[in-house]
Specification:
This protein folds into 2 domains: 275 residues, no CATH class; 192 residues, no CATH class. The protein is 64% helix and 2% strand. β1 and β2 form a beta hairpin. The longest helix is centred in the C-terminal third of the chain and has 35 residues. The two termini are 32 Å apart.
Length: 572
Amino acid sequence: MNTELLGIIVTYGLTLLLAIPLGIYLAKVFAGEKVWTDFLNPFEKGIYKLSGINPKEEMNWKQHMKALITINAVWLVYGFFMLMFQGYLPLNPDGNPGMTPDLSFNTVISFVVNCNLQHYSGESGLTYLTQHFVIMFLQFVSAATGIAAAVVLFKAFRDKTTTNLGNFWVFFTQSITRLLLPISVVIAIILAFNGTPTSYEGKDQIVSLQGDTVNVSRGPAAGMVAIKHLGTNGGGWFGVNAAHPLENPNYVTYITEMVAQVLIPIAMIFAFGWFIRRKKMAWVIFGVMTLGMLLLLVPTLISELGGSPAISKMGISQATGAMEGKDVRFGPTATGYWSTVTTIISTGSVNSMHDSTMPLTGMLQLVAMMMNCFYGGVGVGLLNYFTFIIIAVFISGLMVGRTPEFLGHKVEAREVKIASIIALLHPFIILVGTAIATYTLVYFPDAAWAVKPANWLNNPGFHGFSEMLYENTSAAANNGSGFEGLGDNNVFWNVLTGFVLILGRFLPIIGPVAIAGLLGAKKYIPESNGTLKTDTVTFGVMTFVVIVIIAALAFFPALTLGPLAEYFTLTR
């Protein structure tokens, strides 16, 4: 076993070692049980009092969603104007200008929805003020929003029958004070001591070995990089994200950032199982998600280590694998693990250029975001998976002639309709967005209103189609990574992906929470010999098959036109 492969095994093992006890801790926090962080109670009570919140007030699922949408709308308006006028505000030592309205629209939506799709370069597109008080702020609150929404799901199935699903503001606040903030501090300290900048000074100048003078951007990056990974946000302080040597200086920071990305998504699985007192279900869900990850990771490693088929046919050795667009410090193995993880959990952080990966790797990155439920983002990954559970329960019940039930609650037409709409919404907005972009490029290549689509693509043909498909997929999956051969900082892409971002974030949250609220309010049905058990390996396999079939049927034609066609072009 080579050291690179051993490195990713150790990294994943460390993640799991930390995630399981963290999940148990989170279950206790949200259940109101005693934990070691209870010393924060006075601080949290101060926040509630200052904000006029009654922490003991119970909410139903509709009140939860009203609070969630309202506060997110406030953040959107706040961030939009801050980004537009940042050039006139303090903490701008490099004199960076304000954003255009369309770019500000896209950027603030992207960070409000936990996507962090960046159509700008961090060094020149933002100031230290907006990096902290818009971007970093939204990375905390958007992650806490997803966690708070997931806890509503937890509450719906803890008691036999209930409409009292806790208080959104309490879940939201505790997600920050008890989880995101303290762990981010630890990560930021590790990054700072390993070379990630923490200075508020402007650009520094160095003279290279060739005698060239180079301006090097810096700034208080360590804190932002910590929460961008922990909260599955992904936006980079620097334009090339974690491929930048100051965001990701060495292998210690690589492991730290990789663990941070996957930590909470896995922990939330175990938090769910311990919270509703069904530990076996947590292990089944974890098993299905891990199987999905491995089925994406292993072919990725084979593809990247094998190198380009076109080069291999010429008899040229590729002993190091496909190295174009990759950091030589980490190589294709560690990079392949990062690219798989960052797309299945919707982080969108990159330590290599995805546009340079092999066609099959690009396809697997797309499939990871198209499925969007193997671990997934903080909180929302579990919500997406729950949608497929409901569909699997319904299909399984029909197959065996039993009434569909989930955790003692009858699944009826209304819940199945909502789940089906949410499951179909994801491919709908991706494929419609890609169709609009393709149509515009083909029929209006010189359109001024679309900022000359003929200049969008650096790579025409099949790969160019993949770039447009990836952009819409990344936006819909709240991922944020990109095939950066695409010129996306223009009015067309800023507006199109802005709307895809909104639809891809909030409807997949509202749908599962609505289903959970409706099921939780129904009369509890005790388990019997006729009950369809949903915490077995058999049902786990059924759920996995449903996920694969829905994604395959919806996206296979588009994948055929893009990465698959490119792959067969290279091998013919």
